[in-house]
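Example record used in the benchmark description.
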Amino acid sequence: MSEVKSVPTDYGRSRLTARTRWRAARRGKRDGRAGIGPEHYARQLERGLRMALEDLRSRFVTRNAAHIDRVHAESARIVTEYDHRREDVPAALARFGGWVSQWRTEVTACQQRGLALAACADQELAHYEAAWTRARHRAEVRARRRARREAERRADARGEPRPEPPEPLEAPDPDTPGGVIPAPDGIWTGAPDWMLDEALVRRALHILEQRIGPAAAAAGRGERGTR
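Model output (structure tokens):
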């Protein structure tokens, strides 16, 4: 049975390590000989990738907990000032916008890392399937040769004409589809708005958009203020 190692330790930033390429090719060769389909390896890669992405996001949120706490606290202040006290506090609003912008920038970097891991998983599967296809083709050629020799021996023993040689196998198609790893979900491909879905934060972002415009609010721009 094929085994897939931990994704984060075996992948570089955006490419496979030489060790991972070698291991994937070795497993593909072994599974091709044994008749194990590439879907088996793809499912294991998918599970490993899913666990890696969950771990990556969990560690990111834990590491940046203080930052998101500041965003949430400032959201409460913005909503209090604008909705309850009816006061305009542009410095606090600018500070809030700056923190949101920084948070989204950091989330985007984490999303890029997650997508790089997914790309590496696809690359690993491609190396595996290439080796699997070659090994499977060779195994089929050897099996046909054995069957032909056995048929010739039986024909010779019976004094019958030897059977016509079978048509040679065509070279394997390198583009033959095999296992597929699903693309990462919207958490990794959507807007970098992790942890910004609470009611107070959404309201504060709406106030920010009203005051400085949709484009600026989407970017979270604003200079830090003192109030």
